[in-house]
Amino acid sequence: VQLQASGGGLVQAGDSLRLSCAASGQTFRFSHYIMGWFRQAPGKEREFVAAISGTGHITRYADSMKGRFTISRDNPKNTVYLQMTSLKSEDTAVYYCAADSASWVRSSLSSGRSAPSLDWGQGTLVTVSS
Q1: What digits encode the pLDDT tens for the residues 43-93?
Q2: What DSSP string runs through 63-94?
């Protein structure tokens, strides 16, 4: 599956921003994929942000993002979103979307972890100025 993230940009602290990740592929069915977002700040390791099940009924968030970030998906549009509110300077990072064809219970995304089996998008840069 190919993933294309978009929606990043330069915003002020306290602003909101919505990221999108469009998925495509010749023989894939988007609703069969668990989707997730990770981010990597300058000089830091990539960290988990959020994940969502294929139906959209189950979500998981990193503790530091709960209440500020919301992950959602639109299966007919093959797109997953990350709505970010009350942005802080420490949210500045490149945001990546990831996809996993495993079931929720077997996926690393459901436990907030990366794995070699994940498909990755190219990332979109979010810069939050204070």
Answers
A1: 999 999 999 999 999 999 999 899 999 999 999 999 999 999 999 999 999
A2: GGGTTTEEEEEEGGGTEEEEEE-S--GGG-EE
